[in-house]
Design goal:
31% helix; 343 residues; binds iron/sulfur cluster; 12 helices; four-stranded antiparallel beta sheet; 10 strands; alpha/beta
């Protein structure tokens, strides 16, 4: 696609899809949102602090509304999503994360609200031209083939790689805006990724798995993870964290049942009336890390991480998940920074 066709693509897509893309909020902060005009879109490598997961898993959603009518209760919900969504120009780490978390939403229970939104969503990623702050996607071999289409910015045009049926339908719909086949597209993509630094290198973090399985009782968890303050920033910004809570709001005559994001680093996450199995903060952080790099891949295959680096960038106490995986996974002998944090 020539660069001068991108605006027309967006404008025509807006008639057919609810288009999500990177844009700026009223304060100028980069966010995934719904641009009104083409000029509202931010075509930048930089990741918004919040990932794109809210398009399929909103931070809060109503599952059921209930109301008393005479002596009966009437319940309605969940509310159906009506429009197809196109996520346009999304970072690869965010686009690929949907495939990773799909496993849990169609595992022992089919989560219709999530799965319906996923079925309605087409992922059109824009490949980064450089690694971003703290990201390590080059060291994690997550699958990208579930991303429907990917655009690689070459000299004067975008090379668009179609990867799924949804991607094929998207390109066919606006066929006249796309040129013909690129010559050796795979070679061009390889060169693009090598130049950007995003080509997959030795998948270090997968190698840590065997070490992590022996490290559950490692004494240094308490030292290195006790600085976590349980703020939840790492989980809320993460494209693959998906834990949620369900709460009721209302009264005996009417109200609603809500699903809201939750976070495993919080003090009450696993608390029961008489017992809290993760009774220390380091145990809660350990759970987050081991879930991503051991339990989840053991159950479903992929790591629960696409290496976006947000949890490193935004952690207020500078806990670095990559360095901790390397250390507890036995890939490095010295703890992060050589530091021994206070208990
Ligand atoms: S690891 Fe950092 S960002 Fe995550 S909960 Fe702990 S303090 Fe907050
Ligand atoms: S665990 Fe951290 S680096 Fe991995 S996907 Fe989540 S926020 Fe990104």
């Amino acid at each position: 696609m020539n660069q001068d066709k991108v605006a027309e693509f967006f404008e025509r897509a807006q008639a057919d899809y609810d288009v999500g893309a990177k844009t700026r909020d009223a304060n100028g902060n980069l966010v995934y949102g719904r641009p009104v005009a083409f000029d509202d879109i931010a075509f930048v490598d930089e990741q918004p602090p919040m990932s794109a997961k809210a398009f399929a898993l909103p931070q809060t959603e109503t599952l059921v509304r209930y109301e008393r009518e005479d002596e009966k209760m009437r319940a309605e919900g969940p509310e159906a999503e009506v429009r197809d969504v196109l996520l346009f120009g999304v970072n690869m780490c965010d686009a690929a994360a949907f495939d990773v978390i799909d496993h849990v939403f169609k595992w022992d229970y089919l989560d219709d609200p999530y799965l319906d939104r996923r079925a309605n969503t087409t992922l059109f990623a824009l490949a980064c031209t450089a690694l971003q702050q703290d990201c390590f996607c080059d060291r994690i071999s997550y699958a990208e083939d579930g991303v429907d289409a990917v655009a690689y910015g070459l000299e004067e045009h975008y090379l668009v790689k179609v990867q799924t049926e949804k991607g094929r339908k998207l390109v066919e719909r606006y066929q006249d805006l796309f040129g013909g086949e690129d010559g050796d597209a795979e070679a061009a993509i390889k060169t693009f990724r090598e130049k950007a630094g995003t080509a997959k290198k030795e998948p270090l973090l997968e190698s840590a798995r065997a070490g992590l399985e022996k490290a559950f009782e490692h004494a240094d968890w308490e030292i290195l993870a006790s600085t976590c303050i349980g703020c939840g920033i790492c989980t809320y910004t993460c494209p693959t964290c998906h834990c949620f809570d369900i709460q009721d709001e209302g009264s005996a005559v009417g109200g609603r049942r809500l699903r809201t994001w939750d976070h495993c680093t919080g003090r009450t996450f696993t608390a029961m009336p008489a017992h809290q199995p993760r009774d220390r903060q380091y145990k809660r952080y350990r759970q987050r890390l081991l879930h991503k790099f051991w339990y989840y891949p053991e159950r479903f295959g992929p790591l629960l991480c696409t290496g976006c680096g947000r949890c490193i960038t935004y952690c207020p106490v500078k806990i670095n998940i990559k360095e901790l995986v390397e250390y507890f996974g036995g890939l490095k002998d010295t703890p992060p920074g050589g530091a021994r944090h206070g208990k």
